[in-house]
Design a protein that fits this description.
By secondary structure, this protein is mainly beta. The chain has two helices and nine strands, in the order ββββββαβββα. The chain has a single domain, classed as Nucleoside Triphosphate Pyrophosphohydrolase (Alpha-Beta Complex).
């Protein structure tokens, strides 16, 4: 039986049967305001991540970026500048026993809005504590997943 080794949401390496993985397309906003980027914490592990999420059937990447930013952060005015990177990433979300063959697209975006939703207003089970951080405040080990790749992306801006 073919297996795949991947990270789970706690940062541990797990080995799972290949057939357990489901394809998941998702987009994420590296949302900038002044010299800061908007980050959230993941409820399950306390690590930093970006606003975004899965692409529903029939949606464009740009539509998903706008929808997810509004749902998670309350920010409605985003300017989508460009696609920065795309990665394939096998990932296991342990709380829901979901193994994902992820295709993740990261976009550089901007906004003038500063105010973000409070935790009790966020319509997402995993994203909490949205905050504007200077890129220099973000350490590689503070990131939830794709640590090297996301750290390098942030520091290339």
């Amino acid at each position: 039986m073919k297996t795949i080794k991947c990270k789970n949401n706690y940062g541990n390496i797990v080995e799972l049967p290949f057939g357990k993985f489901e394809k998941r397309l998702s987009v994420y906003a590296i949302l900038r305001r002044d010299d800061c980027v908007l980050m959230c914490k993941n409820r399950s592990n306390g690590k930093l991540w970006l606003p975004g999420g899965g692409i529903d059937s029939g949606e464009t990447n740009e539509q998903v970026l706008r929808r997810e930013c509004l749902e998670e952060t309350g920010i409605s005015d985003i300017r989508i500048n460009k696609l920065l990177a795309e990665y394939q990433n096998y990932f296991y979300y342990e709380p829901e026993d979901l193994a994902m063959d992820g295709y993740l697209y990261f976009y550089e975006c901007e906004t003038d809005q500063e105010q973000v939703k409070l935790n009790n207003e966020i319509d997402d089970g995993e994203a909490i504590d949205f905050q504007w951080l200077k890129i220099s405040q973000i350490a590689k080990e503070d990131l939830c997943d794709l640590n090297d790749e996301i750290y390098n992306l942030l520091n290339s801006l």
